[in-house]
Amino acid sequence: MHGHPTSPPPSQPRAIYRAVHDPDGPATLSTTVVHALADCTGLDPTDGRLSLYDAIDPDALDALFRPKYDGTPRTGGHLSFVVEDHYVTVTADGEITVEPPVRR
């Protein structure tokens, strides 16, 4: 996973965190998403307080963007959901964006 927060322009009140999932790496897509969320929320991804299950089935997320049976990658498509008030978007090419909640 490679991720970094992007600095918001002066007119935008919040930063969008971006990460990229490596489909050839050891982590599943759902694990990469959990680690991206952990970076944004400051929660430890191993202590059980951060879970995707309330928003999405992690196995279904992994299967959705897994390569096709013939080995060709999936192209196009995205999925968005909310975890810990953070808006998460995952694309077929492995990009993960996490938008923090709006602070009032």
UniProtKB/TrEMBL annotation:
Organism this protein belongs to: Natrarchaeobaculum sulfurireducens
UniProt-listed InterPro entries: HalOD1 (IPR040624)
Domain of life according to the entry: Archaea
Pro residues: compositionally biased ranges: 1-12
Protein name from the UniProt record: Halobacterial output domain-containing protein
Domain Halobacterial output: 28-100
Region of interest (Disordered), residue spans: 1-24
Name of a matching Pfam family: HalOD1
